[in-house]
């Protein structure tokens, strides 16, 4: 086996020239990532729980939605931006962010194989979906229903579209990009991406309902 193919990723025929393995253990990488995401959620909860609009606290559903959008904004505008900036060199990098990407790539080696579709999806996520998540969180913070629900609807639809392409292209591929162990397929590939199916569906229904009701009220006012 050549040096270029000595890696833990699938398919085993995949060549990753210049591959350098992470210097941290998988447990360390998962712990660091989990701790960072947990800190973001905790800080967001505290900030939005203390927020008062005309003396009233934000409703619990609004606080939960804010936590979601701040988390997404952080992932899209920081973590995934890192991926875009290091798209060509990630395979050889060994810093902590590169190592977390390499750990996740055990469930989807396309992230190291420099697949154009992955780059395109991430580019849209970073430049469009990320800012929309920021706008949605800001709309919740200011209780601007127009900003919040337009941004929320657009971001959620983009999340669903991206996940559909992401899963669909992997399922249709002639060879799997995921290692055969259950941890990587069910834990990393499915479970880690499932929130971007379930939560956006709920938010799309919520925004469509709010916009429909608002249009109905506006129509009645116009008639009057």
Topology, pairings included?
Layout lengths: L25 H24 L2 E2 L2 E2 L2 H26 L10 H9 L11 H27 L2 H28 L9 H10 L3 H29 L1
Antiparallel strand pairs: 1-2
Helix pairs in contact: 1-2, 1-3, 2-4, 4-5, 5-7
Structural commentary:
This protein has 224 residues and is an all-alpha fold. It is 68% helix and 2% strand. Strands 1-2 form a two-stranded antiparallel sheet. Helix 1 packs across helix 2, helix 4 packs antiparallel against helix 5 and helix 5 runs antiparallel to helix 7. It is elongated, with a radius of gyration of 20 Å. The relative contact order is 0.11.
Provide tags for this entry.
224 residues, mainly alpha, 7 helices, 2 strands, elongated
Q: For the CA atoms, what is the radius of gyration? A: 20 Å
* Oligomerization status of the protein chains: single chain
Which structural class best describes the helix and strand composition? mainly alpha
Percent in helix: 55-70%
Q: Calculate the mean pLDDT score and round it.
A: 93
Question: Strand fraction band?
Answer: under 5%
Sketch the topology as an H/E string, one letter per element.
HEEHHHHHH
Task: Walk across the major sheet and give the strand order.
Answer: 1-2
Kindly report how far apart the N and C termini lie. 78 Å
Unreliable stretches: none
Strand count, sense and barrel status of the largest sheet are:
2 strands, antiparallel
Q: What best-fitting shape do the alpha-carbon axes yield? A: elongated
Number of strands: 2
Total of helices: 7
């Amino acid at each position: 086996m050549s040096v270029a193919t000595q890696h833990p990723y699938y398919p085993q025929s995949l060549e990753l020239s210049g591959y350098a393995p992470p210097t941290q253990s998988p447990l360390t990488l998962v712990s660091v990532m989990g701790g960072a995401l947990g800190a973001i959620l905790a800080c967001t909860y505290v900030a939005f729980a203390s927020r008062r609009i005309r003396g009233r606290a934000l409703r619990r559903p609004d606080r939960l939605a804010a936590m979601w959008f701040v988390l997404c904004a952080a992932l899209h505008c920081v973590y995934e931006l890192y991926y875009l900036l290091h798209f060509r060199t990630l395979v050889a990098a060994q810093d902590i962010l590169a190592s977390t990407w390499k750990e996740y790539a055990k469930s989807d080696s396309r992230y190291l194989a420099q697949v154009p579709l992955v780059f395109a999806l991430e580019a849209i996520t970073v430049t469009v979906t990320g800012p929309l998540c920021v706008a949605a969180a800001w709309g919740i913070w200011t209780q601007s229903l127009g900003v919040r629900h337009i941004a929320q609807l657009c971001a959620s639809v983009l999340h669903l579209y991206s996940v559909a392409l992401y899963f669909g292209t992997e399922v249709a591929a002639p060879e799997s990009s995921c290692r055969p162990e259950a941890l990587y397929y069910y834990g990393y590939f499915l479970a880690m991406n499932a929130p971007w199916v379930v939560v956006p569906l709920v938010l799309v229904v919520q925004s469509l309902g709010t916009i429909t009701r608002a249009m109905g009220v506006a129509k009645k006012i116009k008639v009057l």
